[in-house]
Amino acid sequence: MTVPVLLVLAQSTPTTDGSAPSPATFVEADLAAPQVSVLDLGVTRGDGIFESIGVVDGRAQALEPHLNRLAKSAGMLDLPAPDLDLWRAGVLRSIELAGDSAAASELLVKLVLTRGIEGGDDVTGWVLCFADVSHVDAREGISVVTLDRGYRSDVAETSPWLLQGAKTLSYALNKAALREAERRGADDVVFVSTDGFVLEGPNSTVIALIDGEYVTTPSSLGVLEGTTQAAFFSDVEARGGRASYRPITVDELRAADALWLASSGRQIAPVVSLDGVPVAQDPAFTAAAEERMLAR
Ligand code: PLP
Q1: How far is CA 177 from the centre of its chain?
Q2: Entry's PANTHER family (predicted)?
């Protein structure tokens, strides 16, 4: 296991002598040493946002869509707009520092931005690059259970303060849902709305093949806009296939011709069973699509 690379956001410091302040930058930090205050709102309230970016053959996948989503999440949480040039440079620097690991294995780069210390003016941010991540098992197939999300499908419209569709640090319930899946003998989860629509996984986008078309839930239903699913749809359309965003009922999910959970790192993981019932497979298609997704 290679030691992860940590870069911490150093804020610009105002000067008193009229000289220009030093620009904000990411500086290399010791992962073993304390870096975040116990007063940080990211720690005490889960008040912040994050992104996880897959890196294949040293290339950060969907870097711009991830940065744009970071900015969108920041806007939804009324956080200061992140300086995307700075965050982009941080991502690229972390991959550079991963050195040989970047060529030898897949990496996962995590960006975290919190509201900072209670009462303070500065946000807290860091970039963490994990090496030696493996998604081989997931890409071979996952078992999934449906779990009630407890919200209607119009929650994003009726209750925007619930922050549906933002990638917040408050993932305790996403983790709880994954533990529930494990208790039920499954690998992962598809959240469904109280009015019977498919939402998303705790850390993935649902893609269903229905009547020859690849479909996914639109973000208007309060799901995160997936960068991996978007890349998959572009690939499908570039090859003359059909892909669309529309609400999917749970009944349609159960009758789908194939299902995948898409996420950075994992790419597209084929669902082999849903609530204990085997799901139809297209292994040749999945293998070829996974290869193209890895090569992008
Ligand atoms: N939906 C949720 C709730 C997620 O947390 C994630 C990723 O972590 C996704 C969807 C998939 O997004 P992406 O493909 O950009 O990783």
Answers
A1: 16
A2: AMINO-ACID AMINOTRANSFERASE (PTHR42743), AMINODEOXYCHORISMATE LYASE (PTHR42743:SF11)
